[in-house]
Amino acid sequence: MLKSFIDSVFAYGWAYGTGEALRGKKYRVIMTTGGNSKSYSGEFTINDLAKPFITSAKYCSMEPLPFHVIHSDSPSEGRVEKYLSLFK
């Protein structure tokens, strides 16, 4: 499903190349995990996992907003409210 989305949105002739519809658009990478940050500190970090998204956006000349990672296996309601406030 994610690959289909990427293939559709980052299409030649629309997102880059002759179209450039995404040039100058702002983007934000927000990742959620099913565990704590220690799970993503080994051989492959969370930043490594985000690189394909960031690289695709750079290729389309998009402008980055701050990157966010939400680490939790069971978010409480208070925690969800905190995360939502980050993106307003």
From TrEMBL:
SUPFAM superfamilies tied to this protein: Flavoproteins
Entry GO MF terms: oxidoreductase activity
Ranges for domain Flavodoxin-like fold: 1-76
Stored Pfam families: Flavodoxin_2 (PF02525)
UniProt superkingdom: Eukaryota
Keywords associated with the record: Oxidoreductase
InterPro entries in alphabetical order: Flavodoxin_fold, Flavoprotein-like_sf, KefG/KefF
PANTHER family in UniProt: GLUTATHIONE-REGULATED POTASSIUM-EFFLUX SYSTEM ANCILLARY PROTEIN KEFG
Protein's UniProt name: NADPH oxidoreductase
Phylogenetic classification of the source organism: Eukaryota, Metamonada, Diplomonadida, Hexamitidae, Giardiinae
